[in-house]
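REQUEST FORM: STRUCTURE PREDICTION
Request ID: SP-0412
Submitted by: Lab K.M.
Chain count: 1
Length (residues): 163
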Amino acid sequence: MKPGQALHKIRQALHLDDETMLEIYALEGYPMEEKRLKAILKKPSAKGHKNATYEELGLFLDGLIRLRHGEIKNPPPEDAEIELDNNLILKKLRIALQLRDMDMEMIFELGERPMSRAKLRDLFRAPDHPKYLPCPDAVLNDFLLGLEEFWADMPPIGHYTKL
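STATUS: Completed
RESULT:
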């Protein structure tokens, strides 16, 4: 999934406003400008749309974890290159939102993609594990659709609030 699509769907699912998203970026020390944020959140066909980068998506997800949990324990080294893929996006959302297996199953069910606990575990395995299951765009999309319904009654995220 393209980074801008993922950001837009996460924003929609968690009911985040611009101010909260800018706060999340600030937690990671990333100087996201409001104008840039608005441009990357526009639909690709809209005038003024800009493509988000994987770095911007990754920093947003790390900031969301930091917002919800405080300082990240055992962060990767500064110079480590981590490839952000759909599996890692799922993992970071799971950590940030403190989702348990049962929650994940429910979210996938709400997204009309039932997922067994065994398949879920395979999505979160290391890429070199023999049972590793790559997460296609359609699976991540269905998860984010289910997350929007799952998160509908949750308190708003933002303004440096933790669970």
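NOTES: The chain has one domain: 3-153.
Reviewed by: T.R.
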